[in-house]
Design goal:
Length: about 200
């Protein structure tokens, strides 16, 4: 089972990932949690560059960087875990590339899909859980966090609005997507995400 959690900054992806992993482990599942960019020493190094607030990164370079990290991530962590029969829960995957670099930056979606297809080699998430978050709530949560913001967190509300609309467009009409309201309680979100994963597993 390969489950992905998507959403804009401040949507609660990391919190949901922890909650769902805990619930699945309590049910006896072996679970691997990971994130993109990241998931390997190379991926983590790329992540640090990708998010560094002091750098200006061309949108095409962004897409290349995240897909380079993705290739290594799949080879080093995701595919081996899936082959062992584990449930993998990933914070971001291909939809983030399409939403951020496509809808957010304005790159051609067909080009981005081609890059991502090369990177993933046919692997598709069994279920993608989208935490739909109003940009206003996102900014409020980032302000509450109080830590220094990374390069994407520093983007303006217009950018995050386009990214949000991109995520929703990708989810529209897709059977593997489940859209949840990021403003709901942690308990409600964990329960809904768990049900989505169990439902996808039953139909797999």
């Amino acid at each position: 089972m390969f489950a992905v959690i998507e959403g804009i900054e401040g949507s609660g992806k990391s919190t949901l990932q922890v909650g769902v992993a805990e619930a699945l482990r309590a049910l006896g599942h072996r679970v691997t949690t990971t994130r993109e960019p990241g998931g390997s020493p190379l991926g983590d190094a790329i992540r640090a560059l990708f998010l560094a607030p002091e750098l200006e990164v061309d949108p095409v370079a962004e897409a290349m960087l995240v897909n380079a990290a993705r290739v290594q991530h799949l080879a080093a962590l995701i595919r081996p875990a899936l082959e062992r029969g584990e449930t993998v829960i990933c914070d971001r995957f291909v939809d983030s590339t399409l939403a951020y670099q496509g809808y957010g930056r304005g790159l051609d979606l067909a080009m981005l899909r081609g890059l991502c297809e090369i990177a993933v080699g046919g692997l598709v998430a069994d279920v993608t859980i989208l935490l739909d978050c109003e940009p206003k709530l996102s900014r409020h949560r980032l302000d509450e966090r109080g830590s220094a913001r990374d390069r994407l967190e520093n983007e303006n509300a217009g950018f995050h609005g386009r990214v949000r609309e991109g995520f929703l467009a990708l989810a529209r009409g897709s059977e593997r997507h489940v859209v949840l309201d990021a403003a709901d309680s942690r308990e409600a979100l964990v329960a809904a995400a768990l049900a989505a994963i169990e439902g996808a597993s039953a139909h797999g």
